[in-house]
Amino acid sequence: MARWWNRLQSNVYTRFHWINELYARAVRKKASADIAMPPLAPPPDHLADARVAIVTAGGVHLKSQEPFDMENPEGDASFRVLPADADVGELVITHDYYDHRAADQDINCVYPIERMKELVDRGELGSLAPRHIGMMGHIYGAQRERLIRQSAPEIAALLREDHVDVVLATPG
Amino acid sequence: MGLVAREIEAAGIPTVTASVVRQMTEALPAPRNVMVKFRLGQVFGEPGHAAQQRTILRDSLAALRTVTEPGGIVELPYRWKRGTYEEADAR
User: Fold this and answer.
1) β-bridge partners, A62
2) What is the DSSP string of A44-83?
3) Gap between the Cα atoms of A85 and A146, Å rounded
4) Using CA atoms, how far apart are residues B23 and A154, in angstroms rounded to an integer?
5) Using CB atoms, which residue from B28, B30, B53 is nearest to A112?
6) Which residues in chain A touch residue B18, judged by CB atoms under 8 angstroms apart?
7) Whether B10 contacts chain A with CB within 8 A
8) What is the pLDDT of residues A121-134, one digit of tens each?
9) Rounded mean pLDDT of A20-47?
10) What are the residue boundaries of the structural domains of chain B, listed by start?
11) Would you tell me which of A6, A57, B69, B89 could form a disulfide with A137, CB atoms 3.0–4.6 Å apart?
């Protein structure tokens, strides 16, 4: 499908929220969970001591990194490592399946990295993880398989390696 | 997003997942879900509105404690472009 068509659609359904709900209701019958719901991991006693990471599905990546693949209608299940100290001016969004004009102006709309730094400065959070994760939503078929078999376990392993205490996952 | 959050939680790291589309969350819930009645692409609020964004962020992280069952959903009370966001200076 042409990219302009995907973008036009995303502009329309971002404006009219009920379309998202109708669409999601239509596809939810097909959604099958392939990663079972785990028991809840115990949260830290104090967020003021916790190291926090963000995983965003908003298609965020560094300008210097390869953009997500917009040609494959099944999406792109790969992910990008976003260093905590990256200049926000270096962050861009490649994602044709939602209207990200607001987030293009202010990345914190989908990837609240600056706000999180402020909570660390205020002493409300312990620290930022050194590495955060950018990926995209809109993942189907073989790409969904790839997400389950490859990307999701790699992301979890990377966050464990960084001794992350809490993860905030955000949509596009 | 739900799948990745489940994998991370299963690895022992507690997660909170924000969402703006309830049907999507109900179809594939993450371990802890926070519904925000904002637009797609602006789950933390309006561009340049730092106080609003910090409030949504803080309230999302609070779900670490308020959601006690896997797949639980909490809904934040904020409405799009309505309401004010005041913060205490020292919290």
Assistant:
1) A91
2) PS-GGG-EEEEEE-B-EEETTSPPP-SSSTT-----EEEE
3) 29
4) 28
5) B53
6) 168-171
7) yes
8) 999 999 999 999 99
9) 80
10) 2-75
11) A57
